[in-house]
Amino acid sequence: MTLKKSAQRQLIKYFLVGREGGPNNPQWYITFEKCNNIISQSLPNIQNKMQDCVLKEQIKNVIKVFFIDHGENVDSKYRYIINTDHYFPISKTIHDIFLETSKDDAKNAHKKLLDAVSKEVTKACANELEIKVDQIGLFTVCINGEPIALTEEYRNLIEESLEERIKIADDSSKVCSICGSNKGCTSDLSEMSIKFYTTNQCIFANNMNRKNYTKNFMLCTNCYKKLLCAENFIQNELHSRIAGYDVYIVPHISYGKNLNRSKIKKMAEIIDPLTNTSKAMEAIAEYREETSRRLSALNDENYIFLLNFIFYRKLQAATKIQKMIKDVNPSIFSDISNSFFNAHDTFTMFFPEGICEGLKRKIGLGFIYYMHSVKLKDGSPTQYQKILSTYESIFCKKSLKSDVVFSNIIDVLLNIWREKPGFNTSFDKDRIDRQKAFDFKVIDCMFYIKFLQNYGSLGGGEIMDLETLCINNDMKSYVQTMGYNEQQTALFLLGVLIGAIGREQSSRQREKEQEGTYKPILNKINFSGMDKYRIMKLSNDIPNKLRHEKIQKYHEATFSAHKHLLDKNIQQWKLNKDESLYYLLSGYGYQTMKKKIEREDENNDQQ
Predict the structure, then answer these.
(1) CA 486/CA 477 separation, integer angstroms
(2) Which of the residues 262, 363, 379, 532 could staple to 340 if both were Cys, CB 3.0 to 4.6 A apart?
(3) What SS3 class is residue 69?
(4) Kind and range of the H or E run holding 311
């Protein structure tokens, strides 16, 4: 085996066509993105398929020299494995690895052996090329320096296999649903690895009769081959990741000349600046305009297209579709980018540079993911309905339901406050304490809401008259900029007072122990939601807390303004418990994280 540096164009050159068939099918292709099959079953299986020729003899000799045969009693997928003891710089021998993997699960020992050896081989290849493991694009096999994938015998095998995979019915009455041909048509799409259309459940068949799939969708041989090629192109060229989810981004092209794979790929890559794949750009101005620049370049070439987003999850060799978002106008990603950065500009007016720099680094579609509570298993999300529904609403410029948005946000904050493990929003206790993690997440939530309002997915409140409100000018400016109504402002001011009390409690804690951010006042908040009765009770407790911390004189005006707005609106309270909790915490977040100014008597700052 020889190591060569690869590029994207090598996918075509070396025939990267994925797997053949389902998870239990013998694999004989010679080019893969991972080396598992190449170091085990590919060469023995291709030898069995190939007619007698020089190449077959060469492959036979390679297996004899470079591979270990575990015998006929072992599953054919794991019977052969490359002998790393002689040909790869791996510290452990095959025998040692086998003993380790067979201790706990002897039944699956050979499967685990292959998994372990493939990881070691991949690491060895990466070290040899002096690159990272995730930079390896593909693996293929050469004999005497000549790639098997480039031989005529191998190409012929692929073509023959493709013909065999398509199960054609000899019935001229069947018509292709795409081109109208009646030559060699089939409704059996079991060979497609992306399961966008299935024929294994009667509920999808005409009249729920399994024999009636022919009335739903038919393909002739020619169209089937094209569909398989398109599937391969999508899997190799149009895949991306949005937060923790795999997605195919498939352009729907309405108009454009000189169309080729490169242009199609550029269309799909329009969203890259918002998926954290282009964050290497140092200049924020450059990043801010990058999405618009990419779109303009394609528009200048007179391409008119929409984007389809196919969220999926790999299940062994199959691909399960989780959600499809159709006909997304690519220009909305410029709007998303602008809305994020406009929210960032707003926050720079009120919060320190360090806070705003942190928010800037988080800008992107992945940020939305962390505004939803998602259970994880082995580091991967196990839930997708809520977050993908949010993505659909944002991509299609639909309004989001405010109760759903705030419920999701409160779930996120609750995970941190109660230190729930196993969620995408769980924090590392060894790196940051709970209070700091909570405070930073509150700011994230405030930033998210401002983004949604800028984008138009979430309506703002009815802006109130601030002229008669006796609060300092900084708070007045913030309330006006955020567009809070009277009820929202009443809760915001209550949160400001809680933040002030919490700051004093935290300072006293640091003086005693030189560490910690203990804020007992937060225990007065019901993090499952604040109805109006809990709000009134908390409001009544505030004066005593201010007096106890000896800061009442600094916050009399703020409390008076809060009490005035609360008493005025409490009988017609419209906010639900999650919204109420959010706006209260937004005041807490503002007071905790705002730009530090020298403390002064708020009663003397009412200009």
Answers:
(1) 15
(2) 363
(3) strand
(4) strand 304-315
Phi, psi of 246, deg, nearest 5: -80, 145
Cβ–Cβ < 8 Å for 464, 486: yes
Query: Length of the chain in residues, anyone?
Result: 607
DSSP string, 526-585: -TT---HHHHHHHHHHHHHHHHHTT-HHHHHHHHHHHHHHHHHHGGG----HHHHHHHHH
Task: Give the sign of the dihedral formed by CA 437, CA 442, CA 447, CA 453.
Answer: positive
Please name the amino acid found at residue 380: S
C-alpha separations of 395 from 239, 267, 288 in Å: 18, 16, 18
Q: Using an 8 Å Cβ cutoff, are 140 and 31 in contact?
A: yes
For residue 185, the cross-strand partners are: 169, 220
Residue 278: per-residue pLDDT: 43
Tell me how far apart the alpha carbons of residues 51 and 49 are, in angstroms, rounded to a whole number.
7
Q: Using DSSP bridges, classify how beta strands 194-195 and 318-328 pair: parallel, antiparallel or unpaired.
A: parallel
* HSE of 314, CA atoms in CB hemisphere, 13 A: 13
Alpha-carbon gap, residue 518 to 434, rounded angstroms: 10
Among positive and negative, which fits the CA dihedral 175, 178, 181, 183? negative
Could you tell me which of 259, 260, 252, 248 has the C-alpha nearest to residue 306?
252
pLDDT number for residue 168: 67
Residue written as token pair 């209260």: 584
Concatenated DSSP letters for 453-479? HHHTSS----PPP-TT--S-HHHHHHH
Token pair for 282: 């140092």
CA angle 343, 348, 349 (to 5 degrees): 105
Burial of 242 (0-12, 13-18, 19+ CB in 10 A): buried
Quote the pTM value.
0.79
Helices (H), 319-373: 332-348, 353-362, 365-369
- Which residues of the chain fall short of a pLDDT of 50? 1, 277-284, 598-607
Instruction: Pull the structure tokens for residue 431.
Output: 């790196």
Tokens for 188, please give them. 């059996």
The pLDDT tens digits for 555-602 are: 999 999 999 999 999 999 999 999 999 999 999 999 999 977 644 444
DSSP classification of residue 274: G
**pLDDT, position 388:** 95
